[in-house]
Amino acid sequence: AVIAIVPGSENGSEECDGKEVKGWLLSCAPRAVKPLLAKFAALGCLFEGLQSHYKLMIDGKSGNGAFSTVVRGETPQGENRALKLMKGKVQRHAVLREADMLNAAQGSGYIIRFHGAFSDLIVGESSARRRWALVFDFHHRGDLYDHVVSRRSLTESQALPLAQNLLHGLAHLGSRGIFHRDVKPENLLISASKNAVLTDFGISTLISDTESLKDTFGSLGYASPEMLQGQSTGCHGDWFGSGVVLYFMLSTSTPFLAPTPDLIKQRTCQGSVRLSYGCFEHTSQDCRDLMLKLMAVDIGERWTAQQALASPCFKALSTRYSTLSDSALPSVRSICAGFTADGEDRSEQIPSTCRSGISPASVGALAFLSPANQQHFGR
């Protein structure tokens, strides 16, 4: 079998004029094709044929947002995946940007695991359009918001391990220069092992993108003062959001709740956090200090994720942080080195720095050139 890898251009075509490398042809045993392509997909390359890879399931709860719908999908092997189906108004560049952010964010057990992106051409009577989808791990326990509301709040001992998970995830993102920009309970999933897993990188950006940092993105009630004012300079807004999430877990409310959006913004910028409610009666002083430090209006006084993890609150907790792998950019050669001549997967024997992180910007399209089973991948 032969696999072709074609770099994509900025406008989405497969033309690479002016570039020295036009593409690569890889030869491998037929039994290695599917696992090899799956690895490329998880590293940001695009597939076609979503429903040939996943059976869409409409049972149970699905998430329906302004720009996407999340449903459960089942692989031929019976494994569950979460499929984020983009709605028609979502632009191509937005989907590819989210895929780039997800790819760069991999490597932490507290960040959603990304399994790839799909772009299918849908031909209608008068026009054709692209249907985009992103594929993730499926977490059947749902999100943190429902987890908390169904229990009418969490105790400090129940909330702190989840806060610790979130802070480890944010520390990981910070080390990659990624600003999530939408930390809130709805974007935290509860895993089978009851850890919090951060998802939804739709408005994430790099802290090196100074123009993007000026955008006033975020969710009211969780966005920090500088985010609301378009004055972000780094990941500080994520740390602020983690403090609000901890407050929510203990109270089922947010500290800046108000009747109108303008009042929410005003209270956020004032930093008026009240901990005198009855729900905080049994909250320790260390936990109170943690929330206040994370929600400090002045970013110079606000705790980073690393500083928060050193809080006495977490001293008694066992270390729950897990690192999956580093994310250095590998070469095509290193990916293919994971397969022996007979097609057996040996990728776990490759150093972690060679197993993750291909940028979708550098690998734009794949095509499996088998006469018996041709699959196309494009960007």
UniProtKB/TrEMBL annotation:
The record, for Pfam families, names:
Pkinase
Q: Which residues does the UniProt record annotate as the domain Protein kinase?
A: 56-314
Output the SUPFAM superfamilies linked to this UniProt entry.
Protein kinase-like (PK-like) (SSF56112)
Question: By its UniProt entry, which InterPro entries does this protein fall under?
Answer: Kinase-like_dom_sf, Prot_kinase_dom, Ser/Thr_kinase_AS
Q: Which domain of life is it from?
A: Eukaryota
What GO molecular function annotation could you give as one example from this UniProt entry?
protein kinase activity
What PROSITE patterns would the database entry show?
A: PROTEIN_KINASE_DOM (PS50011), PROTEIN_KINASE_ST (PS00108)
Protein name as catalogued: Protein kinase domain-containing protein
Name the source organism.
Polarella glacialis
